[in-house]
Here is the input.
Amino acid sequence: MAGKTLFDKVWDSHVVHEIQGGPSVLYIDRHLIHEVTSPQAFAGIDKRGLSVFRPQNTVATPDHNVPTMDQHLPIRDQLSRYQVDKLTENCKKHNVTLYGLNDPFQGIVHVIGPQLGLTLPGMTIVCGDSHTSTHGAFGSVAFGIGTSEVEMVLATQCIMQPKPKKMRINVEGKLSKGVGAKDIILYIIAKISASGGTGYFIEYAGSAIRSLSMEGRMTICNMSIECGARGGLIAPDEITFEYIKGREFAPKGIEYDAAVAKWRQLTTDEDAVFDVELNYDAADIAPMITYGTNPGMGAKVSGNIPTLDEIETGNVATFNKAMQYMGFEAGEELVGKAVDYVFVGSCTNGRIEDLREVAQFLKGKKKAPNITAWIVPGSKQVEKQAIEEGITTILEEAGFKLRQPGCSACLAMNDDKIPEGKLAVSTSNRNFEGRQGPGSRTMLASPLTAAAVAVTGKIVDPRTLI
Amino acid sequence: MARDKFLTVTSTAVPLPIENVDTDQIIPARFLKATTRDGFGENLFRDWRYDKEDKPKVDFVLNTGKYSGAILLTGKNFGSGSSREHAAWAIYDYGFKVVISSFFADIFKGNALNNGLLPAQVSEGFLQKLISAVTKDPATKIRVDLEKQEIVLVETGEKENFDINDYKKECMINGYDDIDYLLNLKTKIEQFENSRA
Ligand code: SF4
Here is the structure.
């Protein structure tokens, strides 16, 4: 019999029950909730007269809706405030731990989970948010669910899921200077398209992936959903164990040692078989940016938008629609396009390492006059660290201001909306029409590229500036 | 909790032949601030349907008055992006019972099934056939039979089968939901927990 993949090992050990011709009943170790996708789930269990089955396995924080300025004041938008209050009320009623606004542990769900040691290898982790795939960076099986499923987890600590197929993506070799995790994942999505991973769970492997920090690995796994995959994961190693050590809720002392010994088993067996296996060479990857309205429409920053001849016949309609929305032309050069906004933040690139990279680049430079920049830390802890490390000072000297943590312009539910028609370079994960505000136009890129754009005021290959 | 049972739907259809319709188009994030499941239909395809001043855009398919019905016909990779179940609620609340496409995003598909909205996947060729028939004659009727797992172009009798797993099919037909099923497994779930402790 063929060996098992890492994904199989984690998944299979959480199956409570198999339904003939149907999904598996999967036990969930860690459930994260936020204000937007949970109220209807709590209403559901209330209506059934149920209580939360395992309140200790769920952790809540408001992030999607919260303002990123003046967080000490009551939230001005009435509907947002009501949603955040509802979360507080539901958590209190059901004994669920909540890191509310102004709590030192508050932040974007996918930033706080890893940071607090709530995310551990071998776990099953779900959240009513598609970027739950982020946590896969620790060798856990983590994926986004709908609100009905949030209700299932609250009621029974289980969900029903058909087992996905398995894909492995190997990236071998050394990354060139100025190329980071975000470029790797934008490159992969551009190769396989915004739907190329649908039906699969991806394992990322290879020396280029292994060389990444945990933050970088999280960026990669985070965007698995952008190629349609349910999630992505990376086998844990010394870098993972080191990251976890000493975190607030991680195992400590001999418990930590015992856990590490167990986590070391979390690898894909050599003879395991994947449904699909793809191989890329790190040397082929350059700084990437998207030019269209789905994350699969990406190109080298230094390159051009594809010409119509380069687009597959089936995709011409989508391509033309995107060009019309973005106001771009097929075949056009990307470098030199004037940009209005720069957004650094989100669960993709709102971690301390991202802010460090941006600050390091900005040190001694000045913001371009035509740019409005929003730099938003992923969590309270990231904010604190940024202040302690002097990152905020560097940003201020360059003409920027660090905002307060939340999802912010990643989905523009709060006031951080890119105005209609304006062009933004964003470190977030989605460039859909209107994603960052009605009529806004988004180009996704790495924190380094975003910082370079903030200084030059236009699309620029960051390698020319470092 | 019991839901409406789904057996067959025979209806006219609304064609939306756009690919990669993501959940931000189905329901933009700024309309996700409600704490109940109701009323999302009003904001379905909000930014395609209404302009900045909230006036209907006359040429959008839901505003032309030409097409109506319980079936939405749409291009491949429908429902990509966010996991927001609000997308499925909005489509259902608007009055659709079935979405026919040549490819669905995973999470959307699951969310739809959990809300009595049938995501029926057909071949690209058959999808195009349906879209052109409806575009030519908006009175064209399509029959969706869940029991037989088939979609029929009523006038010509042309049909194609679609896949759905047996469990979900039974749930849709009987109006069962997953939580009822899981609640019945409580003892097994507790045994599982004990076995790992
Ligand atoms: S930062 Fe953006 S993608 Fe991440 S959880 Fe928030 S809204 Fe979702």
